Amino acid sequence: MIVLWLLLFRALGIELRHQLHHRLWEQFWDVVFFGSSLLLAIFFGAALGNVVRGVDMNAEGHFFAPLWTDFAVGPHPGILDWYTVLTALTAVGALAQHGALWLILRIDGKVRHRSQTTLVRLWPIVLLLTALTTAATYVVQSQMRHNLGAYPLGWIAPTLSIGGLVGVRWWASRGRWPLALGAHLGVIIIRQLTRRVLASRLGSEAKAQTVTGFAQSIPVFVLYFGAFGFGLDELGVPLTTYLAGASVIGLAVSFGSPGVVQDVITGLTVVFSDLLDVGDMANVGGQVGIVESIGMRFTTLIGFSGERVFVPNRTIANVINYPHGYIRAYVDARVQTSDKDTRAKAMGLLGRAARAAYEQYPGVLLVAPTVENFRETSAGYGYVRIKFRVWPGQSQLIEGPIKEGIANALKQLDASYAPWMVSVYYRAESNESKLRKRLPRPAVLRAESRKAAPENTGSKHGTKRGDAVVPESP
Prior knowledge:
about 475 residues; alpha+beta; SH3 type barrels; Alpha-Beta Plaits; 3 domains; about 55% helix; disordered C terminus
């Protein structure tokens, strides 16, 4: 009820002041307007202090407390105690400083000079009250430190407060030019915060890297756009002219370059529909590679040879995602079933052929292939299966020289062995597979890493770099 009356008197002060042109009348309503505004700031600050401190609520979810008791923060405090009074004074100082800043931005001449003087005098008071309120909050709410650690988003408010207090004092004496530096520092802070917060919330550094670009774009644009406008205002170009010109240019760009709008909309759709993630192996718009970034206009892939491919978002008609970063190629070679010695020789020949293929095409065959045991069919013939993990889009090597090499190897046992006796088919494993996701790298990067790192002589499974036949799950 008190707040309602204060709002009413504040509105009456604005409305009735100009009804009678008399000094006493105008001063009276100025006092009414100032007093009601001051009391509103005090009451809202005290209300915020009560929310932070906590209040006793009944079973119906309501609370009732006396205006004050002993001014101590105890089990049954009043609406006003030492903590809520401190928050009320801090709110009054912060709102007064905010008003002075607004006048400095909007008005020139004597009023602006008086506002700058007032702001300089208010700044140490607000700084002291803010420091006292922060320290008192840690006393009143002991779990505040734990909450800030559990919820990293909570650091945004104190970070902005500290940055604002540091920048206000400098800006008050130098005009609007520090906005340029402040905007640049704000961009740096936004980029760091969004990256850290999104990484912790999304649980994936790659996903955070994908979304961060979009999360940063809007506030970064607003900061730079506003700073540039205020800089022009210092040079004599009014903000209204700047905003009007920017609106016309924006309309011209949107109508004259519809592709830009399509790029942004398609990029947002790809990200928020969870089609792609940074680090995925995918076919995007007919280009196959590892997703390096998803921007406002382009999706960047690292291709097979290490090249960077920039795909305009508007050209993305379909997306093929390879969940495990490769295509599984199954090469089945028919082998005579009657003679066990022939089978053993065929297994040896196929193992050497698989090893030779892996050594010749290490960038296409991402890991050492597997030669499985002989299998017999109900049709009376048998086969040996070789499993490859292939870079997507490079299957022509399987269909061509690798298949031919396998057929030529088996011709050593049977001169009539024909290439049609070697069949190939492919399968992309789904996300439901229990296999660990393996993200391949382009051949160029793989070669560079081998030069930089010492030769790997073995692993805990006993598999060497040059081995072609390794056990793995089917």
